[in-house]
Amino acid sequence: MKRKVILDVDTGTDDSIAIGLALNNPNFEILGITVTWGNQKVEDCTKNTLKVCHYFGRDDVKVYMGEHHQLDTAKRAEVVKVNPDGPIFYVDENGVEHNLHPKSFNLPEPLHGPEEKDAVSFVIDTLMNSDEKITIIPVGPTTNIGTAFKKCPEIKEHIEEIVFMGGSVGMGNVSPTAEANFYNDPDSVHAIMQSGVKCTLLPLNATHAAALPMSDADEFEKNGSKGLKLLADVMRIRADVSKHLGWHDGTHEIIHDALAVAYLIDPSVVDKMERHKVDIDTSASIKYGTLILDGDTGNENVDIAMHADYKKFKKILIEYLK
Ligand code: RIB
Ligand code: CA
Fold it and tell me: Which of 42, 112, 141, 280 would staple 185 via disulfide (CB 3.0–4.6 Å)?
């Protein structure tokens, strides 16, 4: 039987590869793709999502636009005073902006726009009306899913599992200890964790372990499949910006979001999984968005991928990115 899934994205370079993997996985029944703010404004992420579906010949997949900002914007303004957001783009000598996540993907126009229904209503209605349990895969800020939990806690009973790309243990990419998706809306992560729903996290620890060397981009390009061509392009966009901003030397790239879908295709891509009681720091401090493991509060039903196998990840990408 196919796994029923809702993919929640902020497309987004690495999101586009997660979408490609999901669309090409015959074992998924994709009920819809919900879009959140994050890498760009939600309107731009939605358009990018539709373009990616069109690129893969899947204009039939329904796309729902969601939330515009995190649950607590006033608190976020306080946090930014402590830990200002860093740049994720540079401007070249011709005045052209090179963004880690392009505002508008350089791909053909989709056949239609998003559905009229908003993402949160779609999530609640779909879960509450389903006889089968549904898997949710959030690979952006978790505002859509957190809002759905706040509005209708009963959705928990209809969820098989939530498989996130998010979080980090002992490392961070937007603060010393926080990962971007969870940092962008810790209050919504907290709302989800409070429910006790079964969760699996693919944090930075796993996605960094599965980094792809740039020599793979040349190999992917030569392969000739549409999906691998997109992956090669995405790797080059990311490596260029990462190198210019001094994040790393540009010899590899991390395609975070694709690992969450790859895990559902072949769980053995994760070679070190740990069970922890998980909560998140929601205080307006330097710890904002940091995972709290095995503290007084939290969800005891959480598996955290601490490491992933690069070779298996690459094999899944080659097999499923048609
Ligand atoms: O930290 C990685 C996450 O942040 C990914 O989901 C990526 O798309 C970015 O938004
Ligand atoms: Ca993302």
Answer: 141
The pLDDT of residue 188? 98
Number of domains in the chain: 1
Ranges of beta strands (E only) in 166-241 are 199-202, 212-213
CA distance 151 to 55: 34
What is the three-class DSSP state of 133? coil
Of all protein residues, the one whose alpha carbon is nearest to atom 1 of ligand 1 is 180
Helices (H) and strands (E) in the chain, counts: 12, 13
Per-residue model confidence as pLDDT tens digits over 22-52: 999 999 999 999 999 999 999 999 999 999 9
Q: Work out the burial of residue 132: count CB atoms within 10 Å of its CB; fewer than 13 is exposed, 13-18 middle, 19 or more buried.
A: exposed
In the reported structure, the alpha carbon of residue 140 is separated from the centroid of ligand 2 by a whole-number distance in angstroms of: 4
What is the pLDDT confidence band of residue 100, given thresholds at 50, 70 and 90? Answer: very high
Range of the domain at 174: 3-320
Residue 182 is predicted with a pLDDT of: 98
* pTM of the complete model beyond 0.85: yes
Candidates 11, 144, 181: which one to mutate for ligand 1, based on the most atoms within 8 Å of Cβ?
A: 181
- Ligand 1 atom nearest to CA at 179: 1
We report the CATH number of the domain holding residue 240 as: 3.90.245.10
